[in-house]
Specification:
Layout (H helix, E strand, L loop, with lengths): L1 H7 L2 H9 L6 H19 L10 H8 L14 H9 L1 H24 L4 H17 L8 H17 L40
Length: 196
């Protein structure tokens, strides 16, 4: 099916597919330079990274002559995290991804609603695959949708809050009739009027 699509595709699409494997293509060269620049940033700042949102500001200092002068990010999720926030942050992110994949796979085998963990697994694998070529983890719209898809299986299987038995009203205490003393005409138990 893919071969038929490729054979019938317009030249613009087939040229783009071929360009993915052409090392002389400017976009491929630029991405290779981004990998080199990111690796040098990590080498220079392995623990803290260059700082949040500082890759674009420092990109020009690290770039070579054949690279674009400014780049908003490094087009690679793990490299961007390591360059921007350091290797400990990359380790924490990788730990999050490993635990997420493990727990989603467990839920897929044990849940009564397998489509939810399957969607979470698909979203994670898709994010990882695309994240090798784009910094999608830094896109807030993508991140919100990703986090929604991967947390839905856990929310659906969360223990339901206990049902609290309805509280039956207690029988009301009998109402005592008020009695009046014949000499004061006020209910007993009420304070006498103040005398000024």
């Amino acid at each position: 099916l893919a071969a038929i699509f490729f054979a019938l595709a317009p030249a613009r699409i087939t040229n783009r597919v071929y360009s993915m494997f052409d090392i002389n293509d400017p976009t491929i060269r630029d991405r290779l330079v981004m990998l080199q620049i990111g690796a040098r940033m990590v080498r220079d700042y392995p623990v803290t990274g260059v700082g949040p949102n500082m890759v674009p500001a420092l990109y020009a200092e690290y770039r070579e002559s054949d690279a674009q002068p400014i780049n908003p990010h490094l087009h690679n999720v793990p490299l961007q995290i390591a360059a921007e926030r350091g290797l400990p942050a990359l380790g924490a992110w990788l730990w999050f991804i490993v635990l997420l994949l493990r727990d989603l796979a467990r839920r897929l085998r044990t849940t009564t609603q397998p489509y939810l963990p399957a969607a979470g697994l698909a979203a994670t694998v898709g994010m990882l695959a695309a994240g090798m070529f784009e910094y999608n983890f830094g896109d807030s719209e993508f991140l919100m949708l990703f986090l929604l898809l991967v947390t839905l299986p856990f929310a659906a299987e969360a223990p339901k809050p206990p049902v609290v038995a309805s509280v039956q009203p207690r029988a009301a205490a009998p109402v005592q009739a008020r009695s009046f003393s014949p000499d004061v005409l006020e209910p007993r138990g009420t304070p006498p009027p103040s005398r000024l």
